[in-house]
Amino acid sequence: MASRYMFSLCFALWFVVCLVGLPAYASGLSGDNAETPVVEVKAWLDNKNQLDDGRYAVNQQVILYIDVATPRWFTGGTRIASIEIPGMIVKQRNSLATNYSQREEGVTWSHQRWEITLYPQQSGRFVVPSVDVDVQVSAPDGRSVKGRIATLPLAFDVSLPSPLLKQNGYWLSASELMIEEQWELSRDAGELKVGDAITRTVTVHGEDTLSVLIPPILPSYVQQEQQQTVTNPFQVYVQPPKLSDSQERGNYRSSRLEQAVYIVQSGGDIVFPALELQWWNTSSQQLETLSLPEKHIRAHHTWRSWLRTYWLGLALFGVSMAVLSLSGLLVSHYYKTRPAPAWWQFSRALGRRDWPQARLMIYRRLHQRTGLVELAKADQFCCCAVLPSQQAKWGKLQHRFQAGKGTSLSFIRLWRYLGRCLRPGLRRRSRFLTLPKALPQLQELPHKNE
Question: Which UniProt key words apply to this protein (predicted)?
């Protein structure tokens, strides 16, 4: 009788020592009997892939481990209370615990290890509060006992991993990341026409990250959707992104799938710009960039799309041709009853190789510009003949013209040289268009004094 009393007293003292020495252990378990089972709970953070200063990177996956152990066995499900931390995404991605046993000092302990993933969204210091754990274990007398245990608070620091990154920029942290894309055309690449569809699918796969943290990849065409014009090469329809998160054998995988359908609006070379995505590699502790190359797709016009694209140019061309035609008709009608301009008569004479008529037009121009009838005396009124560099050319042109050996080119040069001659007191006429008077004899009539 005394030996049984001493054994019960020693067991009670050992249980009290366990409760006092381990503050995270269960102390609130209750049962119908007086003997309460021993339950331990531990919580810690995964220190893998920390920065050089012991901090974690923004958006990095931090795993919170909660381990519940008892020398008895679990008779019911264990429940972890929800955790809410400002500025942090908390996800329990694995709904099942890892069950294992471990022998310590000759006693076999049953363990349940839970994993909760934390994703800090900003720099600073974060504190994981005490987490309530509801357990149900067997008592020494064989009965099932329920209770609640609280973990100890944990604190850790978070900072930007690189000065090249911004707090709210388009980047993410992951241990592994890859990107792929697929193109689907409603026709073959060489036969694509206006109205056909181009489907682009971009998928990003990552490990140790969350799908909602993967930034958008495809560019936003909201403005093009709101203001559809014929100048846009395509009309885009963006599908909602498909997010996926999974866990397999302790590996956390996430993916983001984006898809856009482009309806070709105009022909020509359609250019899809290159895409880039920055990410912090938590395994190598380096900033890396994923990229997709630029894509060119050629589309052909239909007659309707061609008209829609070039209607403005066609309209301007039509108006210009109408104006030119009308101007030509008016000029033709005007010169039916009036002599043609001197330069026009001179050009026609050269075209017909009518040298006597061309020579006559040269002398008329000489008389109109200088009042002279001898070409040799015109150099005193020609600024081009005064220049030393032009004197030789002027003399050569006169000699060839007077010798009757002139060509069309020499006649044209002589015409232009005479255009630069002007006798003082004579009014200079237009350089491009000179209209002869319809009745030149009126200029010789005397004026009446009023």
Answer: Membrane, Signal, Transmembrane, Transmembrane helix
At residue 115, φ and ψ (nearest 5 deg) are -125, 130
Residue 102: other Cβ atoms inside 10 A? 10
Over residues 56-63, the mean pLDDT reads 95
Angle at the Cα of 281 (from 279 to 285), degrees rounded to 5?
Answer: 125
| Residue with tokens 């006429």, as numbered in its chain | 429
- Three-state DSSP at 346 gives helix
Half-sphere exposure of 341 (CA within 13 A, CB side): 13
Between the two ends of the chain, the Cα-to-Cα distance in Å is 163
CA-to-CA dists, residue 169 to 173, 214, 278, 444, angstroms: 12, 11, 9, 89
Q: Which residues lie below 8 Å from residue 185, measured CB to CB, with a gap of 6+?
A: 192, 196, 197, 198, 199, 297
Question: In which residue are the tokens 């799938």 written?
Answer: 257
| Two tokens, residue 281 | 């590699």
Tell how strand 88-91 and strand 40-45 pair up: unpaired
Cα distances from 401 to residues 168, 355, 394, in angstroms, run 84, 10, 11
Q: What does residue 100 show for φ and ψ, rounded to 5 degrees?
A: -155, 165
In DSSP terms, 295 is beta-bridged to 272
